[in-house]
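chain below, 321 aa
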Amino acid sequence: MRALVVSALSDDLSGTAPATVAAPVRGPEQVLVRVRAASLNYPDLLMTRGAYQLKPPLPFVPGMEVAGEVIEAAAGTGFAPGDRVVAATRTGGLAEQVAVDAARVRALPEALDFATAASIGAVYLTAYVALVRLARVQPGEWVLVHGASGGVGLAALDLAQVLGARAIATSRSAEKRAWIAERFAVPVLPATGFRAAVKELTGGGADVVVDPVGGDVFDESTRCIAFGGRLLVTGFTSGRIATVPSNIPLIKGFSVIGVRAGEYARRYPERGAENEKAIWDMAARGLLRPHVDAALPLARWREAFESLQGSRHRGKLVLLP
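prediction:
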């Protein structure tokens, strides 16, 4: 089968290329899936560099989540050949086929196409763990979402509104800011110099900040967060891992909370299952508004990865093996 293979770690994707590899063999408690769509996530890019906490042995196939059709399934899994499914794979998704533990596979809601379905799991689970489990966002609270046109940012902005919060977004480009404002009808600010506007809009500061960017954005966020606020760290796409002097959260009374949805589910399996059910129930009811910026054939993988690296996309990028 064809797959995107990382054979050497590099900062310029030179160790990554499509290749023909052996098709996976389904294990005794697994489902073999024909991949129709696989979404890209920032950890996929980091893994090609060896810069993510999960470091698969070389060579490996990246790809954390897919949608497709069941080829075969272990008895008792509840799946049968031809079933439309979504699956969380961690790795292996950017291929024509992938074998997945049955517990990580679920039926694809009828209203969703493959590309959209593949784009929901990772980013919306991160948003859900951040806003619901860790920040415990309440209706009417102010939620400031950075990088709001990216995968996690867009999901957090969408979910914040579903939860009844009042949202403010930031983004680097004027074109993206206009797109966000039209799509979500919220105030949208530049990615820098937002402090004064946030304090004016909220009457003092944001109750919750979702930060997938880090660096200068994190630094400025500590200056416009409310007393008792929650600053949620979901990543550092800016490339700089920020630090904060301990006197700042002490004086301002806010918390800095790290968000790892996958690790949360591994440590709290029952809550993890509840999180997934909540997200997919919302998706089936049409409450979520995921956005697929581009669905490209696997042969155009580099274009997709470079768009991810340069933050040129809006929402999610999908490859079609």
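The longest helix spans residues 269-284. The mean pLDDT is 96.
thats it, cya
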